[in-house]
Write a structure and sequence with these properties.
The protein is an alpha/beta fold. The chain contains six helices and six strands. A six-stranded mixed beta sheet has the order 3-2-4-1-5-6, sandwiched between helices.
Length: about 180
């Protein structure tokens, strides 16, 4: 029996400094409608999300259509970069993908992000074995989780990801068997 995990990167946002309450943009809200419609075709038993509003709002319609409550799992949150704005975000991100131990003061490195994400994913798979689960999350942690299973999910992959984006991970007996990018 397969456990199917649908990792969903949040839709496009309007930038505000507060990570937790950053809202979806007008385009992001429209994309959420398409995403919600797409998932009407899938049997989904659970909907889980990062605590960040943009992730919750991206998968809220899926939960409402299924009549399920969104379970919040803090470990699916985005990486913490630093306690201050980063001047050259692309340079910083390249550095992190080139060296998973690289971080700024008060931030996380990608090894920490990946370990946190994989641990949360393993807990979900153990707890809900055989189910079909949507997880609302963020680009960097999603790419770091995929990188754990296949190193082709690297900086170039991260840079090419869309908002929203969906990846289906199929597990059998706790082992990852397949990763499929689902077109929205």
């Amino acid at each position: 029996m397969y456990t199917n995990i649908y990792l969903v990167r949040h839709a496009e946002v309007d930038y505000i400094p507060d990570e937790y309450s950053r809202p979806l943009s007008e385009k992001g809200s429209k994309d959420v409608l398409r995403l919600t419609e797409l998932f009407k075709e899938y049997y989904i038993s659970r909907v889980i999300s990062s605590p960040y509003l943009r992730a919750i709002n991206t998968i809220r319609g899926i939960a409402e259509n299924r009549g399920v409550t969104i379970e919040i799992v803090d470990d699916f949150r985005e990486r913490k970069i630093a306690n201050r704005p980063v001047e050259d975000f692309i340079f910083f991100t390249k550095q992190q993908w080139n060296d998973f131990d690289y971080y700024l003061e008060d931030g996380e490195n990608l090894n920490e992000v990946q370990a946190r994400g994989i641990n949360a994913l393993k807990n979900i798979i153990e707890k809900y074995s055989g189910e079909n689960i949507v997880i609302g999350t963020h680009g960097t942690i999603l790419a770091a989780i995929l990188n754990f299973f296949d190193k082709k999910y690297n900086y170039d992959f991260w840079k090419s990801m869309k908002m929203p984006d969906v990846f289906k991970l199929q597990f059998k007996d706790g082992n990852m068997e397949n990763i499929i990018n689902i077109k929205i």
